Amino acid sequence: MSNTPSAYALPQDYKEQGRLSQQYTWMKALCGSQSPVPDRFSLDGSPKIIDIAAGTCSWILDVANVVKNKPHVDGTQDIGEQRAHLFACDIDMSKCPPRSVMEDLRIKLFSQDVTKPFPAEMEGTFDLVHMTLLVFALTTDGWKAALENCRKLLKPGGLLMLTEVDPIIYSSHKPPPPSEAPEHDPVNAMAGPTWRHKHNSIYTGAALRNGFIVGLTHRLPKMLQAASFSVLEFDRITVPVGKLCHEYRGFRGDSLAEFENISLENTDIMLDGLSRGMLKKNILEAPLGNLISTEEEMKQVLGEIYVGTRDEGSLGIMGVFVARAE
Ligand SMILES: C[S@@+](CC[C@H](N)C(=O)[O-])C[C@H]1O[C@@H](n2cnc3c(N)ncnc32)[C@H](O)[C@@H]1O
Q: Average model confidence (pLDDT) for the chain?
């Protein structure tokens, strides 16, 4: 299936903006790293760094905060030291901070569809490319084009940092399969009577309906290799939601207890956005095979998932990849 800008399945509104900003702190705790950049990447020597599909720009703002790229204006001349050359882009700029904020931090912001070629003068110039959570934006063809474009932006030996999730949830009784296991069984996850089947009919169903990849973290290593990257790191992280934040820890042992509510709100907003999108197109099913055709029915199903998620919690899968451009 080919990629079009309208393929993006999540809303572009203020609720989504809030969800993404909170999600950034949660994802950092899940990964357990203090620094926004990979441990093996040095911020010395004014590196050139870009955040693609930046959304609210949380990541590049974090990098700017670390490198302290503050302008120092003397009269009309900016004589501040440029400690890193920072760029951010997205297909839709509505969630980005105001331009004045970005300019103050010397982050160059521009509009860009990652599946389309970047400006030729940028090719082969970046030391680090960062891209996170395009699972509800890119089809297989979209990923192929996006990874090619990321590689073209990088200098030989430059790094791509990619964080993605598989759009499917599991439970503490039936935890996510290990990475070496075969890919997920989406039909089994969506067809059944429980709130979890209904959750997956929306979450996994939205991915399947749009031609997105449910086993994304399984497939990315091969997709990266096909785009001439060497995969240097792949951390597969279990993502607890709700009460399970008290039982599971982040990848490096951090407590996730403080994210109980954030993880629940994140799930509510995302399922609300996905189900509204599918209801509009008359393709909302929950569980699989049961068409939901009114807002009232949708709210009832979301209510059931809301209670189930709070009573039992859920588990997801996140993959953090660091790959080198060859
Ligand atoms: C789930 S958000 C993640 C944003 C950010 N990376 C983060 O982790 O907070 C996905 C972002 O991808 C952007 N997007 C969707 N399709 C895109 C495309 N083809 N090219 C570039 N950005 C795209 C959306 O506008 C949205 O801001």
A: 92
Does residue 150 have its Cβ closer than 6 Å to ligand 1? no
**CB of residue 237 inside a 6 A radius of ligand 1:** no
Which residues in 53-67 are b (16+ Cβ under 10 Å) and which e?
bbbbbbbbbbbbeeb
> Reduced to 3 states, what is the DSSP secondary structure of residue 55?
coil
Q: Which domain holds residue 282?
A: 5-325
ipTM over 0.85: yes
Helices (H), 159-312: 186-190, 195-209, 216-226, 260-280, 295-312
Cα–Cα distance for residue pair 46/188, rounded to 1 Å: 50
Q: 191-230: buried (b, 16+ CB within 10 Å) or exposed (e) per residue?
A: eeeebbbbbbbbbbbbbbbbebbbbbbbbbbebbeebebe
Cα separations in angstroms, 222 against 90, 167, 219, 270: 25, 19, 6, 28
Helices (H) and strands (E) in the chain, counts: 9, 9
Band the pLDDT of 4: cuts 50, 70, 90.
Answer: low
CA angle 187, 236, 288 (to 5 degrees): 15
Residue 11, token pair as written in the block:
């809303």
Amino acid at 60: I
* Ligand 1 atom index nearest CA of 7: 16
Per residue in 119-173, pLDDT (tens digit) is 999 999 999 999 999 999 999 999 999 999 999 999 999 999 999 999 999 999 9
Question: If you measure from the C-alpha of residue 174 to the centroid of ligand 1, how many angstroms do you get, rounded to a whole number?
Answer: 31
Sign of CA dihedral 267, 29, 24, 142: negative
DSSP characters for 194-221?
Answer: SHHHHHHHHHHHHHHHTTB-TTHHHHHH
CATH code, domain carrying 289? 3.40.50.150
For residues 266-297, b (16+ Cβ closer than 10 Å) or e, as one string? bbbbbbbbbbebbbeeeebbbbbeeebeeeee
Residue nearest to atom 4 of ligand 1 (CA): 55
- ω into 287 cis (within 30 of 0): yes
Count of the separate structural domains present in the chain = 1
Encoded amino acid at 61, one letter: L
